[in-house]
Structure formats: C-alpha cells, structure tokens
User: Fold this.
Amino acid sequence: METQSIATTPFDGQRPGTSGLRKKVKVFQQPHYLENFVQAIFDTQPDLAGGALVVGGDGRYFNREAIQIILRMAAANGVRKILVGRGGILSTPAVSCLIRKYQTQGGIVLSASHNPGGPDEDFGIKFNAANGGPAPESVTDAMHARTCSIERYLTLATAPIDLDRLGTLQLGETDVEIIDPVSDYADLMESLFDFNAIHQLFNSGAFSMRFDAMHAVTGPYAVEILENRLGAAPGTVMNAIAREDFGGGHPDPNLAHAQELVALTQGGDGLDFGAASDGDGDRNMILGKNFFVTPSDSLAVLAANAHQTPGYSAGIRGIARSMPTSQAANRVADFLGVECFETPTGWKFFGNLLDAGRITLCGEESFGTGSDHLREKDGLWAVLFWLNLLAVRQQSVAAIVTEHWRRFGRNFYTRHDYEGVDLAGAEGLMDHLRILLADLPGTRLGDQSVSYADDFAYTDPIDGSHSEHQGIRIGFESGARIIYRLSGTGTEGATLRVYLEYFEPDPACHQQDTQEAMQPLILIARELAQIETRIVRDAPDVIT
Ligand code: G1P
Ligand code: ZN
Assistant:
C-alpha cells in the first residue's frame, strides 16, 4: 500500500481552545480541514512515528468518518500500533486510561464534549500526550503554528476498515487493534472503589438511583459498571443508547439540560441518588433526593472523605481547583494540611501537578472532577466515588453535604452564562473591566469591600510556563468573589461567564436558596460590567 502525499493549503483558525479544536461539523467536512490538523499533530509529535497511539471518540455525527481518515494518516505517518475502541467509541477518560495503561505515545479524542451533535452541530479533535492528559499549551501552540504553514499531508489509498469487529488488522505496516472500549476502564474503577459495599447498597432494597447517560458515550460504560458488575437493577442507566445526535438533546449534565433526571429526584418519593455525564463522559452531575450538589462542593466533599475509599485510603497529597471554582476545597485542604492550587480554566493545567505528585484530587466548577488515577476529568469515577461514600457512611447525599457545610462553612456558588453574544461587545466588556481593576481594591461595591482585583495569570509551579488573561478576578474582604471570563470552547459568537461565590459560616443561614442568597452579589456583578448595555442582555441564558 503506497503512501500518498497530498498537497494542501492552510485554513485560518485551527487554534485549539480550552479543550482541543472545536468547530461545526460542516467546517470539519471541508476537504483537507481535518487532515491538515491531524498532519500538524504528526509533524509536531515525532515520537508517534514508530510508536503507539489510541484513537476513539464520543460517537457523535462524523466520528466514524474522522476515525477512518485518522487511521489512514497515522499509518502513512509511520505509527507502529493503533488501539481503537470498537465502533470508534472511547470516552475521554477511557482514552486517558488506555494511553497510561499501554504506555502509548499519545491519543486522539474526537469529541465536542457537551456541545450538541449532528450534521449542523459541533465536532472536535484533541490530542492527549503520553501522560494521558490534554496536550499543554506549548504543544497546542506548536500544532497551531504548523497548521499555518502546512503544504502536504500523508495518507494511504485504502478502503475503510471494519471498526466493529474486535481483533487486529493491518493497515500498511501498521497494526490496528480494535479493542473493547469499556473493560480496561471498568477494571481501573474496580481497583479504586469498594465494589462490594456499593453492591450491598444496591441490593439493600433501601436505595434508589438512576444514571442518565444522555444518549452519549457513557451508556455502555455505565451499563457494564453499574448494572453488570455492581448489580444495579436493569434500567438504572437511562438514555443508555449512544446516538450520533445524542437523541437531539444537549449532552450537558446540569440542572438546565438534565431535567428528566432532576425531576426523578424531586418530591416525596424522589430517588435517593441521581447522576449524569456528558457527551464524552468526563463531566458529572450529582443529585440527592431534592438536593443538587454543586461541582465545587462535590470536590470539597470528596477531598474531605477520600480516606473512606480503598483507592485513596492513604489520604490525599494536595488539591487543585480551577480559578473560578469555589474556595470550598481550600478550606478542606487547610484542614488536612495539604496544598491547594488555583489554576486557569481547563484540565490541561492540572497535568503537571498530577504528574509531579503534588495533588491527588482536582476539579472545576463546570461539572468536572478527577484524580491522579488518570489525566482527564472523569464522570463515572465521580459517580462511583459518591456511591462508595453513600455505601460506607449510610447517609443521604443531603446529610453528607449539610454536615460538610456545618464543619467547614458554606461557599454559596452560582455561574451565569450569557451565550452567543456579540464578540466585540463581550471583548469590550472585558476591556472595560481591565481598565477598572487598578482602582478597585479598597473601594466598596454594594455592601462588599474589594480586597483585590486582577486579570488572573498563572505560572505553573512545575515547568514555570506562564499563562495570562485567564479571567477577571475580584475578591472581597468577606471571602466573596466575582469572576468574569469569556468561554474558550464555544463555536459561535462569544459566551460570557460570570462566576459568583460568597462564604457563609453560620449554619443557621445554610439552607437559603442560592439565587436569593446571592442576589446582592449578582447585582454588583451586572452593574460593574455594564452587562445590559455592553452585550445587550437583561438575563443570563443558563444559570448553574
Ligand atoms: C468549559 C468549562 C471548563 C472546561 C471546558 C472543557 O470551558 O468552563 O471548565 O474545562 O469547558 O470541558 P469554557 O467554555 O469556559 O472555556
Ligand atoms: Zn466533556
């Protein structure tokens, strides 16, 4: 089979964002578009030639076509062995697991995470490095630079291969092994959590739950782990069949998009536990009966209780949270006497800290939690962690969280998103805030005194790399914070995210409604940024 060198010219805008290159499917379907980006991966990652690579995606529309293109190009670029999930399916955490377990030189994940799928929706591609984590900025910058000067890509002239049959086949000189997408990942979960205790909980007759796979990639993973290995009743996993368009839904596990599940947990006969994951399986949402656990609280609760699970029985070494994530985890870290790092948004910033053994747990407010077991956030891992805690503590979700607040105080938290707004207006709003920053410390806004205000910058403590303009951060003397950021994952216009946090030490005030309790801070945030006039919106599109 002969290698073909195909002439091509650069496309604008192939710069990976918070989590890889994300565009509309139609953009990816343009001749050479995907090929250029994939060739930029091979041109900047010389270890892949002669090495091994994991390839898989969340099964969204265009997944199979993209995988065929990537396999032919990987073979033409001299990759020795490729591991591919059957049907082209691998969740993002499973890719990370496989890279580490089989020590490959990297992996390619095809997904646009929680963004909708289908011919008119989103697609994405991301390269994960040999540690199993998203490529750091230095690597994605190099890939982008390569896409700007690309003149050719390499491929093989060959028919599509059968992705649905397990086993090894040859593509030119390359071994392509089609593997079961679930088993290695499920084995890893079994090594971390007390499956016997969870099994007993499921069979106690006193516990009801559903896991909502949202017609996305976690369907087969959750059925195997929860129903087959842990003995949950068939049907515990809802929306379990993965579909190319996620059943027309928005595979984002939050209160706005997982309403079917939320409703099942409400009322007098609501479920004891509800959980969901996103398109590619790395996000999680945790619900108890009439109770929503914010992702920030979830990270703090897992950190405070990690010693109660087999995988973390020796305790944790440190915690990291993304900058907009609430400071609840800091309080736990202080109590445990371990370090707590504040990193820019995006999982890639946790990688060095995990590799260096400085942290065990990490998380983001955007429904992402994970640990050093791999190098991605991990939806089902978080769900199993919670199940392990419920099983050993024999308490409800609400009881565990309210007890946590009593111990550490409560960090009320909400995020307001203004989606698809005018890019120039959104950038103008951020510029306006940047101009205000220097004069804010010491002033009063509403009933709050500003203690610091900055444009968040981060220097990685391990490799010294520096990242600027990671969001506007305004901290108040009370411990409250307002943060403004523009999304780095959207595919149309701009999305403004406003993150609000306020600390309440008094348990008598812990049961208030979040939006009500935070109303004064919400008003400060709207006025300070001149949201109504600058982006012409009088209310957020999504509140989480
Ligand atoms: C969003 C989240 C961020 C997460 C990323 C990928 O990015 O806010 O925490 O890492 O998705 O799942 P954003 O759109 O805010 O740049
Ligand atoms: Zn995701």
User: Anything to note?
Assistant: The CA atoms of residues 459 and 466 lie 4 Å apart. The chain is about 30% helix and 25% strand. The radius of gyration is 23 Å.
